[in-house]
Structure formats: C-alpha cells, structure tokens
Amino acid sequence: MGSAEQGSETPTDGRTWRNYFPKGDLWVFGYGSLIWKPPPHYDQRVPGYINGYVRRFWQVLSSTDHRGTSENPGRVVTVIEREFWETLDDPLAHLEISPTATVWGAAYHIPASHAEEVHDYLDVREIDGYTVHYTPFHPVDTSKGPNAEDSTAFPIVCMVYIGQPTNPQFLRDPARREQQDVAEVISRSQGQSGKNTEYLYLLEKSLDGLGLGSADVHVTDLVRRVKAIESVEESAAEEAKAERDIEEALHASGAEAQ
User: Fold this and answer.
1) C-alpha distances in angstroms, 58 versus 81, 82, 158, 175, 252?
2) For residue 210, which of 43, 30, 80 has the smallest C-alpha distance?
3) Which residue has the higher pLDDT, 148 or 55?
4) Which residue from 109, 102, 111 is spatially nearest to 38, judged by alpha carbons?
5) Which is more confident, 74 or 242?
6) CA dihedral 215, 1, 131, 62 (to 10 degrees)
7) Does the structure show a pLDDT above 60 at 228?
8) Is residue 63 over pLDDT 90?
9) CB 3.0-4.6 Å disulfide test: which of 47, 96, 123, 129 passes with 210?
10) How many CB atoms lie within 10 A of CB 35?
11) Considering Cα of 31, then 36, then 42, then 45, what sign does the dihedral take?
12) Mean of the per-residue pLDDT values for the chain?
C-alpha cells in the first residue's frame, strides 16, 4: 500500500472516523462528483490535492439509480494508489509526470453538529464499491498562480472514498481499461441521474474551475474521445448543461452553508 494512505474502513462499520477527527468535526475530500455536488452542511470548501494517487474512470457504475443500468453499467472515477497503478498497463502512463502523483479536488469541512449525519449520508451515497480511507489533503491558494501547488499550508487529514482494485466494480480486464473502450461506454450509458457523458463533462468543468494546475490528462483525453463519438451539437449542448449544473449546484450549496 502507498504511503499516502493513513487508514481505511468499510462504510457503515461503526464510528471509526471519530478516531481521525477527535474534535467531532469532519473533513471530506472529493475527487469526483463531490466536487460539483457537495455534501450537505459544509461550512468550508477548499481546493487542493492529495498525493500518491492517480485518478481513473476504472470503476464500473453498477447502481441503476445513477448513470447506468445493470445491463449497461456506466463508468465513474476512483483513485488508485500510485504504487499499485505502476504495475498496471496504462497507455497514458507516460503523461503522468507528477513525481508525487497529485490528484486535485475539493475538501469540505463539516462542523461537529452535523458530522455524524453527513458521514452516514456519504456512506449511503458512496457505498457501491467504495471504502473509506484517510489521507493528507494539501489546501492551496489558487490565486498564487504557478506557485499554487507550493502552498505552505499544513496538510489536513481527510476522509476519502476509494474504489479499491479488490472490489467487484473495479475494471480488472485491461482491455476494458483502454481509453477508447471507456469513452465508448461513457458515450452510450445513461441512468436515472442522467447521461454518463454529463458526469464526465461535469468533472472536467469542475476541475477547470478549481484553478491552475488542476487539469487531469486522463479526463481531458476521455472528453476528446467522447466528443469524437458524439455529434458536435450534442457534445456542445451537454457541456453547456454541465456548466449550468455546476453553477446551480455550488450556488445552492453555498447558500445553504451560509
């Protein structure tokens, strides 16, 4: 296991999280849908990154109430420990140039008054193939431009949900992890929460919105491939909808947090 991991637990297995947050409050790191669909009751949203992981759309979305069906499951992201990822055949490996394997996202602070409620909410939301881990999160001031990643702020221990390679939803077949195969699955998958393509576009737009340095080569390459499969009009409409959805979601959650 990589050095970035501080611990893990299975969702709903009690109150282990309190060992990592003795004051009763809670920090949660989001690298996927949590970036644009924050948890309830947060009072701080901080951009930043974790080290030692690589983000990939290598988790099968088997839940029928999201962006796929049991017959045609979609694809969602997980983060994979760099040490294990390096043993896998990944055609984009040469583009992962960060020596620390940086994954950008957003961390949310949940006050103690709502921490238990939000923890249980996230367990239900993320339970399909994900387990809880605790890892250092590095907050950054993106207004510093090129030096954003050189932040001197102290790391914050965050809870993060990870789809481990040992879980049944992880793409074990190397052929199904090929970028073009993943893009084709995303382009045709749809569930009760909408199209799988929208999830991809929402992630790309959300990462762009975090600030300089937050782009992800795996995500941007998938966007390019999906656009090549879709019509120009269709992809443009879905991207525009993704931008509107992000603005509305963050505005609504920000108003709730005030």
Assistant:
1) 13, 14, 22, 11, 30
2) 30
3) 55
4) 109
5) 74
6) 70
7) yes
8) no
9) 47
10) 26
11) positive
12) 83
Which tokens belong to 122?
């996230």
Superfamily of domain 23-257: Gamma-glutamyl cyclotransferase-like (3.10.490.10)
> Domain segments of the chain: what residues?
23-257
Mean pLDDT calculated for residue range 12-18? 68
Task: Please tell me the distance from the alpha carbon of residue 53 to that of residue 85, in angstroms, as a whole number.
Answer: 8
Q: What is the pTM of this model?
A: 0.84
Question: Residue 103's pLDDT is what?
Answer: 93
Q: How far is CA 111 from the centre of its chain?
A: 22
Do 86 and 9 touch, CB atoms closer than 8 A? no
pLDDT of amino acid 5: 44
Tell me the pairing of strands 103-110 and 26-30.
antiparallel
Residue position matching structure tokens 């193939």: 129
Contact status, residue 157 vs residue 23, Cβ threshold 8 Å: no
Residues recognised as catalytic: 126
| Three-state SS annotation for 151-172 | CCCCCEEEEEEECCCCCCCECC
